[in-house]
Design a protein that fits this description.
- By secondary structure, the chain is an alpha/beta fold.
- The protein has 36 helices and 14 strands.
- Helix 19 packs across helix 22, helix 28 packs across helix 30 (640-652) and helix 30 (640-652) runs parallel beside helix 32 (679-691).
Length: 757
């Protein structure tokens, strides 16, 4: 104990010396005298020795884990002689729990450092890390060249020279880098505190979260990993959350000896496994995990054993992707429970602190940061919208927002990717002794500039928030010269997918039409959305789905082979991920085809049927993005009169739900709509929202949606709504305006006065 006191006295001396206030120095000197008495055992009979032992244990931990200790620490831990009985009991029990955790660790395994552990299992990790690097070092662009004849013309190359290069040109790898991507630290409780549980399907996007951008900005992801052990990354759909985890995985695989060994797991795949193994835990899944069914090591039994031991030793970085992508809402709670239990037992600091332990001192870091210690580390990603269903909260858990890119950053990213693709093409050609002349290079460069200018002439929000769309745009540069309308996400998806389908049907001379292929992808997307959290389907189920679909279309089932062969050929939409396992290339493609099915714009459009279908799926969190896309599709395809009728039906059809899902869906998709309904229909939506008896979204949600409208429309609605005294009082109450004062003012027509929204 004396050594602890001596260390404490030295630390206290440093704090006293650095203090600038005389009052603080006086208090610190008093604490110093108490510590000296403690060292000399000059204690009276009333001393609580259990309190003293607690003090020793905590003091040692703080001294081990912090280079310096603040004035507030000495006041809270030493200056106050005794806690209240309840707090003291909690602290005693906590210290006993830490002792038990330490003993459990000692009983489980003999401690080894990372270098020793890797050396012991060198053959295994050579293969594991090689595959990890191979899976995640680059992004793949499939079906890049949709028209070889056009490509040969653009690049001024004899098409005969390209015949043997078609396969090489169809798939190009592109590097990516998250070093400079801006992140923000956010308080989840504050961000979601005004959102009702009843409408948790409609949580805010990152633009509506409560946080100060200037104060909460994080330097970069690597700096974040050096400081925090337990991290949850939130972001909007398509905002590179998966790509971020893949990049981190790749970086840690490269620097294996210095830090930790990465274990990247798709939560959707775990959910499927867990459904089949409900009595097992998350740790049991380690070693069985795959990347879209591709194994990191062929020896599964060896993987289980070694990777579990890696976690027991505290040398793992566990990355869990897509907490929000579980298809079964009822299953989400069980999955989150599994993950929390895993974190409690296996993701502890070097001094065995759990992320869910009570933080007795708010301004004191009780654990060593990951940069200074062993102990596992975990990163979890989720979309913002559905995180309400799967909150993982704890005093030590850091929530991070992956921000929307700035306009110039988005342009730079597309330009960089396009340049990389072009350089990859040139390298492939050079290897075959095909060189491009200066004139051709200039022509291609100018084409790129024109394309970028056309794409970014309007500063569309959805482009900046969705890096997967930017990725597709960089690919489109090398395909068609056709002018297409870039007003919303659906246009990019439609254009890209039509190109892919058209290209394949021409190349293969397929008996299956482009429309049939598209209809089958709708069928496949619904099946995956409803039945597969992993987004994967095996060959047998795919074949059965083909047979069922073709039967509905009155097409011979012999054509099922053509569809499966099409998927095997890496068409750039959906493809074979591993042996006899298939999925969409991007989740966004899957969501787009679900949207096509929800909108159902083929043939006779039935308003009532469409509305009921949309409302029925509104309660499923996984369908949110598809519903937003469906709203965009419908607004662009219907004529004004028909669109008004659709919106009116959407706003008034409740299907016995207490929440006006149709109205909420309309406002949430507002920025993606091609057009708005007439003013009176729009006012109907506002009135439903404003007058709803369960209206718990309160001022924040209502005003945020009201502000999406133009000022003349807002003023017109205020003027219409506040025609009687009761409604005007309600209006004043919402905006925290004193009705009596407001109406007694000298303003001639208060209702028309501008309200600061």
């Amino acid at each position: 104990m004396e050594s602890i006191i001596e260390r404490a006295l030295r630390a206290l001396g440093r704090t006293t010396k650095s203090s600038r206030l005389d009052e603080e120095k006086t208090k610190l000197r008093s604490i110093r005298e108490d510590l000296k008495k403690l060292r000399l055992r000059e204690l009276d009979d009333s001393t609580d020795y259990e309190q003293i032992n607690l003090f020793y244990r905590q003091l040692e931990r703080f001294l081990n884990n912090n280079d310096s200790l603040s004035f507030s620490f000495w006041i809270k831990v030493v200056g106050q002689k005794k806690d209240d009985p309840q707090t003291f009991h909690k602290r005693i029990m906590f210290e006993k729990e830490l002792v038990q955790r330490k003993q459990k660790f000692i009983d489980k395994c003999k401690k080894k450092n990372l270098e020793e552990f890797l050396k012991e299992h060198q053959p295994f990790f050579e293969i594991y890390l090689q595959n990890t690097t191979s899976f995640h070092s680059k992004l793949e662009i499939f079906n890049l060249i949709d028209d070889m004849q056009k490509f040969s013309t653009d690049f001024d190359i004899d098409i005969e020279k390209l015949k043997n290069l078609e396969n090489e040109l169809q798939c190009i790898n592109i590097e990516y880098d998250f070093t400079k991507r801006i992140l923000y630290s956010i308080n989840v409780n504050n961000s979601f505190k005004n959102v009702s549980a009843d409408v948790s399907h409609y949580l805010p996007s990152h633009d509506e979260l409560n946080f100060d951008k200037e104060k909460s900005q994080v330097k970069n992801i690597m700096d974040l990993l050096r400081k925090h052990r337990w991290i949850v990354v939130l972001g909007d759909p398509g905002n590179s959350k998966t790509t971020l985890l893949r990049w981190i995985t790749y970086k840690f695989a490269q620097e294996k000896v210095k830090k930790r060994i990465p274990i990247l797991i798709r939560i959707g795949e775990f959910a499927v496994w867990f459904e089949q193994n409900p009595n097992k835990t998350f740790i049991d899944y380690i070693g069985e995990h795959t990347w879209f069914s591709k194994r990191y090591h062929p020896d599964v039994e060896n993987s289980r054993q070694i990777l579990k031991e890696l976690i027991y030793q505290g040398h793992a970085l566990i990355l869990l992707d897509g907490l929000d992508e579980i298809s079964d809402v009822e299953q989400i709670g069980n999955i989150v429970h599994c993950i929390k239990n895993f974190m409690k037992e296996f993701v502890l600091s070097s001094d065995l602190i759990s992320p869910f332990d009570e933080k007795f001192f708010d301004d004191i870091i009780e654990t060593q940061p990951p940069s200074k210690s062993t102990g596992n580390q975990i990163i979890i990603t989720s979309r913002i919208v559905n995180y309400k269903f799967s909150l993982i909260l704890g005093p030590f858990i850091q929530h991070i927002l992956l921000n929307t890119m700035e306009y110039e950053e988005a342009k730079c990213m597309v330009r960089k990717w396009a340049d990389h693709i072009l350089n990859s093409i040139i390298n492939i050609l050079n290897k075959k002794n095909i060189e491009l002349n200066t004139k051709t290079m200039k022509k291609i460069s100018e084409k790129q500039k024109r394309f970028l200018k056309r794409i970014f002439k309007n500063k569309f929000q959805f482009l900046r928030s969705n890096s997967s769309l930017l990725f597709l745009i960089s690919k489109l540069m090398f395909q068609s010269d056709k002018i297409f309308s870039l007003t919303c996400r659906t246009e990019i998806y439609r254009y890209t997918i039509e190109n892919e389908l058209q290209s394949w049907t021409i190349k293969q001379n397929s008996p299956i039409s482009k429309q049939i292929l598209s209809d089958f992808l709708i069928e496949l997307s619904f099946y995956l959305h409803l039945n597969s959290s992993s987004g994967l389907i095996d060959g047998f189920n795919l074949e059965q789905l083909c047979y069922f679909f073709l039967k509905q279309q009155n097409i011979s089932k012999t054509h099922a082979r053509h569809i499966i062969d099409w998927l095997k050929s890496n068409v750039g939409i959906a493809q074979e991920q591993a042996l006899n396992v298939y999925s969409f290339l991007y989740l966004s493609f899957q969501e787009y085809f679900v949207a096509l099915g929800l909108a159902d714009l083929k043939g006779h459009f039935s308003i009532q049927q469409n509305v009921r279908r949309i409302i029925s799926f509104a309660i499923h969190p996984r369908f949110r993005e598809s519903l937003l896309l469906a709203m965009s599709l419908i607004s662009s395809k219907l004529e004004r009169e028909e669109y008004d009728a659709f919106c009116e039906s959407l706003f008034t059809t409740t299907m016995n739900y207490a929440i006006p899902f149709g109205v909420l869906l309309f406002f949430d998709s507002f920025r993606e709509l091609d057009k708005l309904p007439s003013e009176q229909i729009l006012f109907q939506a506002l009135n439903i929202l404003f007058n709803h008896p369960c209206y718990a979204l309160s001022k924040r949600y209502f005003i945020s949606n009201l502000n999406k409208l133009s000022k003349p429309v807002i003023n017109s609605w205020i003027d219409q709504y506040t025609t009687d005294e009761q409604s005007f009082k309600k209006f004043c109450n919402l905006f925290l305006i004193d009705y009596d004062i407001y109406t007694s003012s000298t303003i001639s027509n208060p209702r028309k006065t501008q309200i600061n929204l």
